[in-house]
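Q: Structure tokens for this one, please.
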Amino acid sequence: MNEISTAYQNNRVGPVMRHGELALAVAEAAQIDNPGKTIAIDDKIAYLRIATDDELVLTRATIEELLGRPFSMNDLEIELASFAGRIDTGSDSVRFYYATHLKEA
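A: Here is the predicted structure, written as tokens:
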């Protein structure tokens, strides 16, 4: 089976961002804001798929630091092409997660 046909069988969560300055900052922020987790960054040229297992948190402060300028979490939605999992958004952070997890095979 290929990755697409088995995607529904995993607990991967995270954003799919249009490629650009913000996507690169979000990819780096994902690694900083989620210590101890393995973050997969799949560069598809037009977009970046950023994912990890179970839960991924991004904070405004980290993204601002990486961009070197003020940033509103609402701006994330403009560049967010898609996402995996459920999403909770706030003014200081966004969280991608699953409420129910698939069992290990």
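A few notes: The chain has one domain: 3-97. The helical segments are 3-6, 21-33, 60-67, 73-79.
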